[in-house]
Amino acid sequence: MRRTTYHHGALRDALMAACLRLLESEGLAAVSLRRVAREAGVSTGAPYHHFPDRSALLSALSVQGFQLLADELSAARAAAPDPLAALTALASAYVRFSREHPAHFRLMFRPELSQPEKHPDATVAGDAAFAVLTGTIAECVAAGALPERGAETLAVTFWALAHGLAALWLDGQLAKRSDQLGTSADELVAEILRSFTALASPAAG
């Protein structure tokens, strides 16, 4: 039964939620504005009130994903007892986000889909999420827990580590390797992050 009672803001949210359901259940190939409209129970012309094309819808979901990620990173940072512990907590939160929001995660890092040159909000939102990490690195440097030299490179390195672990987990490879090592994926991630953080600290040099 087709719904006709969405008000303006709720229609946008309903279309984004419908797109996420399609991404999670059938993958990217299933996503078109016509198919999303059918999934949301609205007319095929309804999505065009908010999204002129498919990339605009995917970009909006990327923005939403980065905002959710930034919120989770900020919460992890605030709950940690000190800046160095916060750094490890951020990476753990990043991996956890990928598991809890796999459709968002896979989309957020596909610029050929969200077309940031047309929809720059996704880039802005991604930079805001990354700023939580760089801010935590700066706090670690100020506390003497990390060296000042190469701090910006270290931020990218830490992001690469967390992103790699998240991608491996989503692809099932982390569970496979943790089984071979006689541990769980959670424990393997935690040990990798602890080891990397220890190596990056001044005391390791």
From TrEMBL:
Source domain of life: Bacteria
Gene3D superfamilies linked: Tetracycline Repressor, domain 2
Protein name: TetR/AcrR family transcriptional regulator
Residues of the HTH tetR-type domain: 9-69
InterPro entries, alphabetized: Homeodomain-like_sf, HTH-type_TetR-like_transc_reg, HTH_TetR, MT1864/Rv1816-like_C, Tet_transcr_reg_TetR-rel_C_sf
Coiled-coil features, chain-numbered ranges: none
Lineage of the organism: Bacteria, Bacillati, Actinomycetota, Actinomycetes, Mycobacteriales
Key words of the record: DNA-binding, Transcription, Transcription regulation
Signal sequence extent: none
DNA-binding residues (ranges): 32-51
SUPFAM superfamilies with a match to the protein in the record: Homeodomain-like, Tetracyclin repressor-like, C-terminal domain
Pfam families hit by this protein: TetR_C_33, TetR_N
The keyword Transcription is annotated on this UniProt entry: yes
